[in-house]
Amino acid sequence: MIRMILFLLKRRLIVYLITFLIVIAGIGSLFTFNIELVPKSNFPWLTVNAAGGALPPEEMEEKVTKKIEQELKSISGIKEYSSSTSTGRSSIQIIAEEGQGERVKQEVQNAVNRVRNDFPKAVDTINVNQANLGDDALIDYALVGADPQAMLGLAKTTIKDRIEAVPGVKEVDISDRSFENKIAITLLPEQLNAYQTTPAQVIGQLQQTNWKQAVGTLENIGFDTVVMIDNTYNTVQEMNQLTIDTPRGMVALSQLARVEDLRGKVKDSVALTNGGVFIYLSVKRSDGSDLITTQGEVEKVVQQINAEASGQYELKVMVEAVSYIKHAVSNLSRELMIGGALAILILFLFLRNWRVTLVIATTLPLSALMTFIAMKIGGYNIDMVTLISLSLSVGLIVDAAIVVLESIYHFREKGEPLSQAIVKGTREVLTPVFTSQLTIIVVFLPLVFADFEDWLKPILATIAFTVSSAIIASTIAAFFFVPVFSDRFLQKDKKVSLEGESRDHVIVRAFQRILKWALRHRVKTVIASILLLVGVGFMMPMMKMGQGMDVNENLVFANINMPKGSTLEATQQVSMQAEQALRDMPEVKDVFFFASKSSSEIFISLKGKKERSRDKEALTFDINERLKAIEGTESITTAFGGQGTEAPIQLDIKGDDMEQMASISKEVEAMLASIQGVNNIRNDFQEGKEKVTLIPKQEALARFDVDHRSMLQQISTLIGTQSVTSISKDGLDVEVVAQMPEDWLKHPEQLRQIMITTNSGAQVPLSELVEVTYSKSPVVIVREQGERIVTVSAELLGTDLGTVGREIGVKLPNLAVPAGYEVEIAGKLKEQSANMTQGLLVFAGVLALIYVIMVAQFGRISQPLIILLTIPMALVGVVIGFVVTQRIFGEMAMIGMIMLIGIVVSNAILLIDRINLLRERGMSLSEAIVQGTKERVRPVIMTKLTAILGMLPMALAMAEGSDLEAPLATAVISGLVFHTMVTLILVPVLYSLFEGAKEKRIARREAKRAAKKAIVEPV
Fold first, then answer.
1. Engineered SS bond to 770: which of 182, 448, 494, 694, CB 3.0-4.6 Å?
2. What's the rounded Cα separation, in Å, for the pair 437 and 426?
3. 316 phi and psi, to 5 degrees?
């Protein structure tokens, strides 16, 4: 290494050329990064969806869901699975092991193909899909206007085509769940009776219409002519003229039914904003496209569409993250530059020499540019996590350069020539700097390989790669660029004061006085440290624990659940009251909602963080209070970050009997209600629907000559809708369905009176052919790992996940649960417990790795132990920091705390290495401790202050994106502030105790040997 440095000092042009290449490559990498919100997460999440007509949930569960789940048990690589079964639908969610998504998807597809022949015939659609987590979402629009039918056609044609033509746009999904897209043929029972025909006969004939077929070709010399029969229709008028064959003769369809074009009509749900209906459009971007650029192009097209509309309709932004991302990235970039500027300022204030400061100021951007190159090679982009990692690195990447430069400057102060000072100074700190940098990098090994939750792994991997790249870049800069730049910039330095000519810095003198006092009272110092550690242990319950990973802070999703039996009109009225109440909040920018008979989903778009005067907790409380004040609701839920966010508190009840689980859920709800701060408690059990079961009488079927398949078909035509065909209307496919009038068959008893046509054409009442029984059918059956579950959920207000989790842990074992049933902690509470457990294992792994490195560095066991004993004192600072700031200690804070270990150990290594070096040069133990600490005060304070100030803008949490980064910065800063004192006071004291005891043991051993020798030798 020293030979390489000497070579570079002689060939400085090589270093300048390499510097130029790094600048070019680094800037090139920086300007080619895509900008994202968070690292792309391609989670192996699979979904199996099966559609089965009107089959009841129990039959779908028994004949579809269970059969698929049985096959899943034999497939390796599946981490967990759950299912939701309702009338005619089965949905199974599968999470595969990391990296196994494609293989598992193929095996699941094969398994489904094996068993699908055993499914009921009504199950006609089965899909297996693999999903990515939010990496393609771009922007959601609400198309508002006066004519829903025209808007729906416009959205699905012109608007969709124009937006999808934008480079980088993958597709535009149009949701028509609030609007009908069909033409309904409503059969008239009186007319059917008059013409002596049945619904099944009419529908059967209609299903044979609307066709086009080529019948042959007329061949001629030089040309051919295709002959085709076109029996299609495209309008309601044409459909009315269709002829139906009845026992009374041929008759137009208009004589038997009412044909209506229902396109654009509101069905069983309605989407509203500001009192007007809207159509929901979701724009997806293609893989690899830049988020900001693509949305910018989409917004230009949308502006043109709105301008051309002349007020007849308008595309309004409903949900988007780009403006938030732009602000967050801009703020983090600014904080990064401010942190770097503060770091350089600190160096100048301490060194009081602009030439020396210029050397460090040159290596700072150089290290950053090398980090950009590494990120580009590694396939990373600019996002909030990489920017947080870079902000963390600002103070760390100058550490090695400061130590090397300070060592060079120290030899200059001793009167060494510059070239000799560079070589000797670099050689003296080479090993300890390399070791200290290695300790920061190795903390990420256990962090990356630990079994954290899948969503956290990409974040950990990104932080590990970015920070490690920055540390490696800074080490290269410290050993190869700092010596060369020092040789260049310090040649004409006239401000070098020889040792003894100038007074020490005031901070150095202050620490020296404190250290001498602590060395005179070593036992008292250690006892005070232990008491402080114990005292802080009592403060730990005052820390707020939870998950602080709500990335998008400008979106709130709320859900209003309505009482059973509510109408769409009632839900719409409640939703409009909620919308008005929310719009009265000064922080709210816009409100959109989807209302159905049972619930209303509300999207609340907030103004930017700088425009808001209240924090998340205050806003959540206000939103809850406003929604609860609305009469006619059953329960509400709220969540920052958008739709689909899980409730923080979830308890799963497992068992077989749904009614029994519903009863247990009430007791669980009562338990949660007794815990302060638990809000919006509910369960997902839905009271079953009334079910009528028709049991065919085999003897009666034979007697009346009725085929059971024919009876099934005839009953089906009387209930619900029957697909007839599809037609093209205004460039869109429109479904044509047949149905009976809505009020024709309402009560189960009316089923008994319907007439069934026998094979001979006679009419028989259904009551003669079947037995009728009554029971209840569950609305939805939820299963997890093959077991039925009911989930009790709740949110938090004015408390934290850790506090509530501890109380649940105390109260849950006292809950009386019948045999065969169990209540388990699930969701975020379970995740937090698992992540914290993994965090402790990572903590232990980090300590073990660092200890091995330090043993290799010092060649002994005792001195690394001294450093390990001081690490808990850094945790004292972390606890105090989170108690004072009342920030959430979650996953990001845990990452910061684990990083902190590597950071605090690095300076302790440099300090002990310096003391050992002085002792090797002949100094006594006490002199070496005082002198070594004195020589390390300035670099330790400089490196720690640069790290603290580099992260300070993040910790202040003033702008968008700060809620994600602030806990991590708080953990590192508070730990560093406290451990800096520990490094310069407690480490020397412990060193004095350990090494002093060792010297006494050696002295006693030598004394015994001398005594023995004196006895043996003759006088």
1. 694
2. 15
3. -105, 140
**E runs forming strands in 493-546:** 544-545
Pairing state between β 182-187 and 732-739: parallel
Contacts of residue 959, defined as CB under 8 A and 6 or more positions apart, other chains included, come to 327, 328, 331, 609, 610
Give the Cα separation of 271 and 175 in Å (integer). Answer: 10
Strand partners, 559: 601, 637
CA 936 vs CA 91, 521, 626, 774, 984: distances in Å: 63, 22, 59, 85, 8
DSSP letter at 117 equals: G
Instruction: Report the alpha-carbon distance of residue 889 to residue 892 in Å, rounded.
Output: 8
State whether residue 183 is helix, strand or coil.
Answer: strand
Q: Which residues of 766-775 are buried (b: 16+ CB within 10 A; e: fewer)?
A: bbebbeeeee
- What is the residue-wise DSSP string for 619-665? HHHHHHHHHHTSTT-SEEEEEET-TTPPPSEEEEEEES-HHHHHHHH
Q: Which single residue is written with the structure tokens 């040309």?
A: 223
Q: Could you tell me which residues are beta bridge partners of residue 354?
A: none
**Region for residue 898 given its phi and psi (left: phi exceeds 0; alpha: psi -120 to 50; beta: otherwise):** alpha
pLDDT in tens, 221-265: 878 888 888 888 888 888 899 999 998 889 999 999 999 988 777
Q: Note if the pTM is more than 0.85.
A: no
**739: which 2 tokens?**
């149905």
**The tokens of 13 are what?**
């042009």
Place of tokens 């900001």: 292
CA distance 946 to 399: 8
Q: Are strands 223-231 and 211-220 parallel, antiparallel or unpaired?
A: antiparallel
Cβ atoms of residues 662 and 685 within 8 Å: yes
H/E stretch holding 968 reads helix 962-1016
d(CA 946, CA 942): 6
pLDDT per residue over 772-821, tens digit each?
A: 888 777 778 888 887 888 888 888 887 888 888 888 988 988 888 888 88
Secondary structure string (H, E, C) spanning 785-823: CCEEEEEEEEEECCCCHHHHHHHHHHHHHHCCCCCCCEE
